[in-house]
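By convention, the token line describes the chain's fold. To illustrate:
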Amino acid sequence: MSYPVTLQLRGRRCTVLGGGPLAVEKARGLVAAGARVAVVTATPDPALETLEAGGAIQLVARDYTPGDLTGSFLAIDASGDEEINRRSFAEAEESGVLMNVVDRPERCHFHAPALVRRGPLNVAISTGGESPFLAGALRARLERIVGEEWGPFTAMVGGVRRRLRRRGVPIEEQNRVYRRLLRSEVRDLLREGRESEARYAAAAIETAAGRPRPGRVALVGAGPGDPALLTVAARELLAEADAVYHDALVDPRTLALCGPHARLVDAGKRGRRASADQAWITAQLIEAARAGEDVVRLKGGDPFVFGRGGEELAALRRAGIEVIVVPGVSAALAAPAAAGIPVTLRGVASSLAIVTGSDRDGASPARLERIAAAVDTLVVLMPLGNLERVCARLVGAVGPDRPAALVSSATLRDQEVVRAPIGRLARAAHAAGIASPATLVVGEVVDAMPAREVGELVAGAGSFPGIQEVRG
């Protein structure tokens, strides 16, 4: 195991052996860190000659000889020559120079990490020499996530920190200020180039240090199941939340994205089982926000698709609580898609309706029949509690032979799909032991794709490898 550190190289002599592109990369990195860099090579890349001409490095135009590391604090052997590798490492060992022989982990005192540089913020990624490729791949991902705005944002937070320390603000309150800055619009403003507005917003947060501050509630969609389908905004809110009130069926991997100090509260509703009361949930959200907490109400699918999100939004606004809404991928669309069923398809289906099969939230039987008869594709959420009655009503509206599918645990590894004419679907689902959560799809689109093509789509889905198909 390696011990990660960052080294202060400003003004220190560092030596690079080798003259190819890799040596150029290492030399530039050391120059950027403020080191005095010497490069030893008989075959210098033109980029090294340019660096020497600009005074950035000292170029020694010959092959390495013992003694070239004298006076060096750190050295990197990027020569790719086994004999030079052996001799340079031996000299470094003898003279106490920190040495990294590229692609030779056994001849490394340290491992150069892949770096994401954003002004004063540096994110280092190291695999301990196991796989520089993976370190580079992770760096590329982080560079897309940690945008350029993080540089000025880090500098801005540093300025706030120094001023708060001079004022003698206790560390606990300082940390609250930093969390508010992180959750604020400051980074968004910097990303958009609105620096003066960003400074103003940061100053307002800094000035309010020590004063009571109301929290806020974010109504966030958790999607159909697979945490890979969460939005970026949802991930950020979960990482920074003080409290997360979550539905019962939210995947544990999604909850694992919450910050280590977040308070997790099961606020799920379960059919025919003990469940959290809606009035209690709303009161808890209001109380937590008034206590200054930033709260996430994490709801399966989308908050506003049979998720009581509208009711909670109205109650929170009446209480004067700041609310933000982050949509999620609804199972109404994700479940059919994960089963290879397009809810609309040119020449087959051009209309779609979404209803619920729950007695608590459902439409009247007559209305369900009218909706089913009026659209090409019908999606029924939460159908299992009343599946036989729902199917019977649909048979009355569209006939017993309309294609149908029941998708269970959509997008998860245990996803199952039962396909049968609507007149036989309830019996087929019972025989297959289908469990909640499930989504019912009714329409010609269910059988619109040839079975071979559906199989190919499922096999290539990647995120949903455990799909099982049953035909009734």
Summary: The chain has four domains: 13-112, 150-207, 216-326, 332-471. The domain at 332-471 is CATH 3.30.950.10 (Methyltransferase, Cobalt-precorrin-4 Transmethylase; Domain 2).
